[in-house]
Amino acid sequence: GRVETAEGGTIFLDEIGDLSPAFQVKLLRFLQEREYTPLGCNKTFKADVRVLSATNKDLVKMIEEGQFRQDLYFRIKVVEINLPPLRERKGDIPLLVKHLLSKFNRTKGKRISKLSDKAMELLMRYDYPGNIRELENIIEYSFVICKDIITPQCLPSYLNKKYSRTTDGFSTLNLKIVEEELIEKALKLCDGNKSKAAKMLGISRVSLWKKLKNKQ
């Protein structure tokens, strides 16, 4: 469906390093033949799309370890852009925050106008081991807590603590902390009603149930 929607334009594949071996085969075939078969359809269609992909993983190392197809790697590596981690380009944070405010105001039906100076200071001081996705999770978390202006009290508690490592394990921990705090706050605001909390979070009730189950 996404290929059909992107006809004549661009399709973006995020976290391409996480693709399963089976899907890597399908993607390689699509890139080679420029053909696809929609789900539930027996007819094959030609596709005219530009493919952009992104990953934070070392694909060359994954190839050596047998986790990523070399032929697919060379198919997607036509033009490569290496983007430094967010901690090395903190000047981008205000612009990214502005974009995320606009995005979540639109998708969540709220009108949060800005961050306080102190909240922005905390964001600028942090090292983001989880990169841009962690910043996005932080802003989404604050949308559940705040009404109009994001203050330090609206941000995840760990941002006020004096640590900022950059290991993969710590990155995963931070992202998990944000998600758990976000779910906890949503449930509290909705008096434990999972359906209302899921709607507030912008996910299905089934997804919320799975996240709560994984937390146990």
Automatic annotation (TrEMBL):
Keywords from the named record: ATP-binding, DNA-binding, Nucleotide-binding, Transcription, Transcription regulation
Domain of life: Bacteria
Cited CDD domains: AAA (cd00009)
GO molecular function list: ATP binding; sequence-specific DNA binding
GO BP terms, alphabetized: regulation of DNA-templated transcription
Domain Sigma-54 factor interaction, chain residue ranges per copy: 1-144
SUPFAM superfamilies: Homeodomain-like, P-loop containing nucleoside triphosphate hydrolases
Pfam families hit by this protein: AAA_lid_14, HTH_8, Sigma54_activat
The protein's name: Fis family transcriptional regulator
Species assigned in the record: candidate division TA06 bacterium
Lineage of origin: Bacteria, Bacteria division TA06
